[in-house]
Specification:
The chain is α/β, with parallel strands linked by helices. The protein has one domain (3-182): 3-Layer(aba) Sandwich (Uracil-DNA Glycosylase, subunit E), CATH 3.40.470. Helix content is 44%, strand content 13%. A six-stranded mixed β-sheet has the order 1-3-2-4-6-5, with helices on both faces. The longest helix is centred in the middle third of the chain and has 18 residues, at 95-112. It binds uracil (URA). Uracil is lined by residues 26, 40-44, 47, 53-54, 58, 81, 120.
């Protein structure tokens, strides 16, 4: 499937009831052959209105975090979510909704073939790394999943709620930058 076919098919998806209440599907944003992919949980109110991931307050913080390690959603990474449609009232996506939607993310990953996947928050980490992932204990660690390196950061919304988590995230970001230099140097413009 091409990107255009995939995006069209995802926009017409009725595999779970979330399509009935959303304004726009939020497919993803960024560079389609990025070496590094970020995955959040699901769209919030602003994302639903604009059709782009992480554009609210959490998104502004995410952009600042990315900038610290020379990443930019329009230049060298791709950002998507576990579910493409907004859960009403910003509740967590249900397991049934995650299961119905995950095929779209897997198809995106097959096209992008990232070397590093960064989960934003517990929900993405539990889906993509392991069901019993403990974000407070395992954030910043790297896990090999089928030859791809996965890690998780605290969700930007969690950092806004509890700024005491920010120093840990700064360390995680610097370690992520090292990992990117090692496994995906082209992310920083080095093409061998
Ligand atoms: N939170 C997420 O997990 N994803 C978004 O796109 C926005 C907020």
């Amino acid at each position: 499937m091409t990107w255009e076919e995939l995006e069209h098919a995802a926009a017409a998806c009725t595999r779970c009831p979330l399509y009935e209440t959303r304004t726009n599907p939020v497919f993803g944003v960024g560079v389609r052959d990025a070496g590094v992919m970020f995955v959040g949980e699901g769209p919030g109110e602003n994302e639903d209105l604009q059709g782009e991931p992480f554009v609210g307050r959490g998104g502004q913080l995410l952009d600042i975090m990315l900038k610290i390690i020379d990443l930019d959603r329009h230049k060298n990474i791709y950002i998507a979510n576990i579910v493409k449609c907004r859960p009403p009232h910003n509740r967590d996506p249900l397991n049934t909704e995650q299961e119905a939607c995950i095929g779209w993310l897997r198809a995106q990953m097959e096209l992008i073939r990232p070397k590093i996947v960064v989960c934003l928050g517990r929900i993405a980490a539990q889906v993509l790394i392991k069901p019993d992932f403990k974000i407070s204990r395992e954030h910043g660690q790297f896990f090999d999943v089928g030859g791809v390196q996965y890690t998780a950061l605290y969700h930007p919304a969690a950092l806004l709620r509890d700024p005491r988590k920010k120093p840990d995230t700064f360390v995680d970001l610097k370690n992520l930058q090292e990992k990117i230099r090692e496994l995906s140097p082209e992310t920083y413009g080095a093409r061998n």
